[in-house]
Specification:
By secondary structure, the chain is α+β, with helices and mostly antiparallel strands. Among the domains are: 35 residues; 63 residues, SH3 type barrels. Helices cover 30% and strands 20% of the residues. It has a five-stranded antiparallel sheet with strand order 4-3-2-1-5.
């Protein structure tokens, strides 16, 4: 057989070998990450839910998803084991370790203008409150009777 005809098959087999090797490495890294879980550790599931580990079984893990609410998940459903500071920042909104250099934007715009909400002038949007004397009240220009 000719070497040129075998070359595509050799390249294909080599690519498959590399893909399975990298997939195995990812699986080993994920298993090692899950082994770091201990009760009290903050985790994120593959569905994006944040919870605290309560108990660890052989193939399952019990998570506290809210105070007093426990759910049983497969260990494979754990997407990330989080450090305490990161978990508290995401779930509880604590910024103990963070320093904010940018100014905080206020929730209401009245503090930006320096005026109270009662002092805000009304804008003329072109609406007419009442018809003028020379305009007919029924909206007809020629004075014909009829409803709008």
């Amino acid at each position: 057989m000719n070497l040129v005809t075998l070359l595509p098959f050799i390249v294909l087999i080599g690519a498959m070998f590399l893909m399975t090797r990298s997939a195995k490495k990812k699986q080993q890294a994920a298993a090692q990450m899950r082994d770091q879980m201990t009760p009290g550790t903050g985790v994120r599931t593959i569905g994006g839910m944040y919870a605290t580990v309560k108990e660890i079984g052989d193939d399952t893990v019990t998570l506290e998803v809210a105070p007093g609410v426990h759910a049983i998940y497969a260990k494979n459903a754990i997407g990330a084991v989080l450090e305490d500071a990161e978990y508290n920042r995401i779930v509880h909104g604590t910024t103990d370790d963070l320093t904010i250099d940018t100014p905080v934007v206020p929730d209401d715009a009245s503090s930006l203008t320096g005026k109270d909400a009662d002092e805000t002038p009304k804008l003329d949007l072109g609406k007419k409150d009442e018809p003028k004397d020379d305009e007919p009240k029924d909206g007809k220009a020629d004075g014909e009777p009829g409803a709008k």
